[in-house]
Design brief:
alpha+beta, Arc Repressor Mutant, subunit A
Length: 112
Amino acid sequence: MFGSKPSASKMEESLTLGIKELHLCYNLLDSDKGLTMYNDSIITIKNGVRSGKPTIRGLRITVYDILSMLASGMSYDEILADFPKLTREDILASLRYAARKESMTTLVPQSA
């Protein structure tokens, strides 16, 4: 009904990525504010804002939103015109965040 069951290797890959992200968030968490900021301080994760997804400067615009717009073919100028609170640096920070996240992907060998 909901598609095929993920393979064991896919589940292991997701678990490995999740653990690495958990360590990253733990290391960067500002426990007083419940806020995680990445090195460039543009991408933030805050409880209660877009379900804790990475957002731009705490706005309700997620990294996923930016990446989806770029993937659909929108130019930087079109995105900035649609979302006046965003800057070019915000878009670049989204791309940096996605690149860092992708670089953490680890394939776990499947046991025989």
